[in-house]
Amino acid sequence: MRPSGASILACLLWITGIEAYFGIDYHAKASYFNFQVNGNSLYVFGLNVAANGDIYFHMSGPVIHTWLGIGFGSEMKDALMIIAYPSANGLNTTISTRLGSGHTEPVYTPDFEIINIYNDTYAPNADTVTDRGTGTIISHAMCRNCTTWPTGSLDLHSTEQPMIFALGPSQHFGSDSVEASIPRHSLYGQFTVDMTKATNYTGWYGRVPAPNIPDFIYPPNDTSFASFGTSPSFNVVTMSNPMPTAHALLMCAAFVLIFPMGAVVMQFLRKTLWHGAIQIVGFVAVLAGFGVGINVARQYNKSKNFSSGHQVLGLIILAGLLIQLGLGLLHHAIFVRTKQPTIIGRIHFFLGPSIMLLGLINIGVGFNFAGNSRMNIPYAIVVVAIALIIAGSTGCLVYCRSRRKYKPEPPHPQFGQQPGYSDYEMPRQPTFGEQPPEAYEPPTPYSPIGHFTIDSPYTPLSAYTPVTPKTWKKEDITNWPHWPHAKDDYQ
Ligand code: HEM
Ligand code: HEM
Ligand code: HEM
Question: Greatest CA span in the chain, whole angstroms?
Answer without folding.
Answer: 121
